[in-house]
Amino acid sequence: MHLCDLEKKEYLNCLKSFGHQSEKCRHLSKKYLQCRMEKNLMAKQDMSELGFGKEDDLEDSKERVAERINDRK
């Protein structure tokens, strides 16, 4: 089974790109954990129990907007 491999690879590549500074890759960590929960690879939990809060949602939306802008260029 290779479920969530794409999310895992994105996260690991991000870590490598940023010298293993995990705070720069939190949005991908969250995405990976959400994938694992959706595929029943781990127990479903509230993201706040995993260290993600409302401010992370705001950062995620900012990140998505920035990605869309970069994709258009």
Explain what you see.
The protein contains 3 helices and no strands. It is mainly alpha-helical. It has one domain. Helix 1 runs antiparallel to helix 2. The longest helix is centred in the last third of the chain and has 19 residues. The protein is globular and about 35 Å long. The protein starts with a helix and ends with a helix. This is CHCH domain-containing protein. It holds the Pfam family CHCH. Keywords: Disulfide bond. It comes from Morus notabilis.
Structural class, from helix and strand content?
mainly alpha
SSE sequence, one letter per element: HHH
Low-confidence stretches: none
User: How many structural domains?
Assistant: 1
Helix content: 55-70%
> Average pLDDT, to the nearest integer?
85
What is the rounded Rg?
A: 13 Å
Helix count, DSSP H or I runs of 4 or more residues: 3
Strand content: under 5%
Q: What kind of sheet is the major sheet?
A: none
Number of strands: 0
Oligomer: single chain
- Distance between the terminal alpha carbons, to the nearest Å? 36 Å
What would the principal axes of the Cα set say about the shape? globular
